Amino acid sequence: MDPNAIAASAIAILSPYLVKAGEEIAKGAGQAAWKKTGDIYEAIKVRFAKEEDDFPAQTLEQFEKSPDKRKGAMQDVLGEILAHDPAFTQQLTNLLKEADDAGAGAVFNVNIFGGEVGEIINVDKLEGGIKIDKSSGK
């Protein structure tokens, strides 16, 4: 898998995790996904600390403070490290798969510019079909 795609997946999962870090953590079924996301974060933190240059660790620190504003920089630094470290690439790929299996990969991003939206429906996994009946007028 492409290092930049892996980095993008990791950042997509980590951003909401870091935004929620100061709040009460998810309960019930979300606990497994939350733990797996934490495992991804810790793996990245440990790997960044191994760099001779402290730029990756500084980038992670800035990402922790402002995940939405710093995710591009974080993705660039992570992608660069992944491109030169096949063992870490494999480790992160495995962690992302585990997080996805635990439900952490269900991230929806909807951007609407102008116009009006009556309804948005996001479906992560679906078995057995879906029926949306608009005839009731409700």
Task: Describe what this molecule looks like in 3D.
This protein has 138 residues and is an all-alpha fold. It is 59% helix and 0% strand. The protein has helices spanning 3-20, 30-49, 55-65, 67-83, 86-101. It is globular, with a radius of gyration of 18 Å.
Order of helices and strands: HHHHH
Helix content: 55-70%
**End-to-end C-alpha gap:** 45 Å
Low-confidence parts lasting 5 or more residues at pLDDT below 50? 22-29
* Global shape: globular
Number of helices: 5
Look at the helices and sheets and give the structural class: mainly alpha
What does the average pLDDT come to? 79
Radius of gyration of CA atoms, rounded to a whole number: 18 Å
Report the sheet-strand fraction: under 5%
Number of strands: 0
Tell me the major beta sheet.
Answer: none
Keywords, please?
138 residues, 59% helix, 0% strand, mainly alpha, 5 helices
Explain briefly what this protein structure is.
The protein has 138 residues and is mainly α.
Topology:
Elements: H1 3-20, H2 30-49, H3 55-65, H4 67-83, H5 86-101
Helix pairs in contact: 1-2, 1-4, 1-5, 2-5, 3-4
